[in-house]
């Protein structure tokens, strides 16, 4: 597991009801690498963790207690660094048919009988209630400014198998990850422009599942409103005229989401949905019943 070089704080809402719940959460976090400190508030059902561990790994550890867990916010542990955090939900700019969009989650793949579908697993994206989104969700990337010139990124993707999107018969394919220059993402990748910030490269496994946790030089406020792009390396290397030859040439090869500002630690006290009047726990349970 890759750890950050600087401590940061992540706040979770955990549906705890008694001291046994507190003990279970404490036990789940006790041996997680990179955790420097954790504070558990039973009354407010809040768990705040300070350390260098990726939020996605912390979420997995907390969910191992079989309790509802919701990410509430992330921020630097230093009081001298202004709170800046963002999130990007990665979708396909063009609709993908189920025959192509098959992911490691049988529900998103449109599989009626997940047990009989070979090669698929039920690994969910960390912290994602996927039924809330009208399109299939192929990844989530969280960003937090942990130092004046350092942005921490925590990316998890679950992409279509390479062979289904024309990336060859190999089990793996390489994808470039970057924050785009401003542009229209409806007809990618021609109109995204050159990368504004290159974030790195990711190579998902044969099921399309992969993650990347790293520090990037930059200031997060400059990325807000731009696109976070995950694009097949072979698509990037295509000549411009080849990419422009057909509007569908990038189906299943590029995934994008707006980098949207999100709450920092202690920056989100909302517990009731203003639209439905239901609590966050009720909303979460309703989503879980759909799976």
UniProtKB/TrEMBL annotation:
Similarity comment: family membership: Belongs to the CCS1 family.
SUPFAM superfamilies: Cu,Zn superoxide dismutase-like (SSF49329), HMA, heavy metal-associated domain (SSF55008)
Keyword Aminoacyl-tRNA synthetase: no
Record's protein name: Superoxide dismutase 1 copper chaperone
Cofactor(s) of this protein: Cu(2+)
Keyword Signal among record annotations: no
One GO MF term attached to the UniProt entry: metal ion binding
A Pfam family hit: HMA
InterPro entries on file: HMA_dom, HMA_dom_sf, SOD-like_Cu/Zn_dom_sf
Keywords: Metal-binding
Gene Ontology biological-process entries: superoxide metabolic process
Entry-linked PANTHER family: COPPER TRANSPORT PROTEIN ATOX1-RELATED
Domain of life: Eukaryota
Domain HMA: 7-70
């Amino acid at each position: 597991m890759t750890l950050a070089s600087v401590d940061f704080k992540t706040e979770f809402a955990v549906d705890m009801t008694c001291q046994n719940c507190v003990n279970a959460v404490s036990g789940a976090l006790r041996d997680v690498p990179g955790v420097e400190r954790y504070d558990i508030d039973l009354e407010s059902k809040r768990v705040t963790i300070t350390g260098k561990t990726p939020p996605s790994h912390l979420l997995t550890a907390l969910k191992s207690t079989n309790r509802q867990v919701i990410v509430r916010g992330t921020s630097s542990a230093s009081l001298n660094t202004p709170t800046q955090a963002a999130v990007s939900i990665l979708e396909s700019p063009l609709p993908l048919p189920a025959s192509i969009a098959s992911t490691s989650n049988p529900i998103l793949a449109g599989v009626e009988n997940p047990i009989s579908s070979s090669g698929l697993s039920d690994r969910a994206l960390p912290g994602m209630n996927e039924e809330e989104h009208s399109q299939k969700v192929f990844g989530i990337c969280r960003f937090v400014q942990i130092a004046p010139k350092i942005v921490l990124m925590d990316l998890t993707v679950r992409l279509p198998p390479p062979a289904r999107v024309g990336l060859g018969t190999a089990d793996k394919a390489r994808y470039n990850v970057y924050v785009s220059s401003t542009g229209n993402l409806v007809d990618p990748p021609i109109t995204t422009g050159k990368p504004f910030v290159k974030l790195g490269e990711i190579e998902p496994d044969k099921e399309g599942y992969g993650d990347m946790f790293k520090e990037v030089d930059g200031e997060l406020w400059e990325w807000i409103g731009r696109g976070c792009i995950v694009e097949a390396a072979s698509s990037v290397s295509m000549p411009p005229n080849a990419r422009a030859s057909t509007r569908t040439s990038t189906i299943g090869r590029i995934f994008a989401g707006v980098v949207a500002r999100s709450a920092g630690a202690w920056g989100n006290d909302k517990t009731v949905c203003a639209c439905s009047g239901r609590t966050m726990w009720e909303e979460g349970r309703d989503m879980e019943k759909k799976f």
